[in-house]
Amino acid sequence: MSTKNSDSFGGVVFGLILLTFLFAWLTIPSEKNEVNAFQVSSLTFANGVFDGWADDLAIKLFHSESNHNKESARIAFRGAILKGEQEFPLATTIFNLLGAFFSVGGLIAVWLARSAANTSEAFTLGFWAEIIESLVFHIGYYKTVGSSSVTGQEVLITIVVAVIMGFVAQQVNKKYGNRTQTKTA
Q1: What H or E segment, with its residue span, contains residue 178?
Q2: What stretches in the chain show pLDDT beneath 50?
Q3: 35, 159, 51: which is closest to 91 by C-alpha?
Q4: How far apart are CA 148 and CA 1, in angstroms?
């Protein structure tokens, strides 16, 4: 019985840490001090999930009461993104990749892969969803930072993520596809 209580407590603690991580980036504009690696990693993950538009979403939802608040929030997010790239490049890369795997468009594409006619079509759906999301991400990045982040490393990361999402879409199609299976004689 103590093991079960210990597991429940550990689950609650892990859940609280995860929730804190998922929403830590929202505190960046209100911080009076410099942002830390935890906030930068959280923002990078959120931008991966929301295709580079997490900061714009936060500004629209939480900082839209005046143009001054919008602009200071945009400056704070820009500074956090640039700080992450300069001071925490490995964490930025890792959390950007993790965010890309949980991106809204990618998850929708994988979900839609269930109804693809075959595994090849499912792969194509997952692959191109990630390619398109990468383009949307870079537009969002440019809007916040004011410069492009397209490098050889970014292109390689995009292709790797797209191939992996294509394979994930194939597996979803194989497992949950709604097509009729016919056996050949």
Answers
A1: none
A2: 1, 180-185
A3: 35
A4: 55
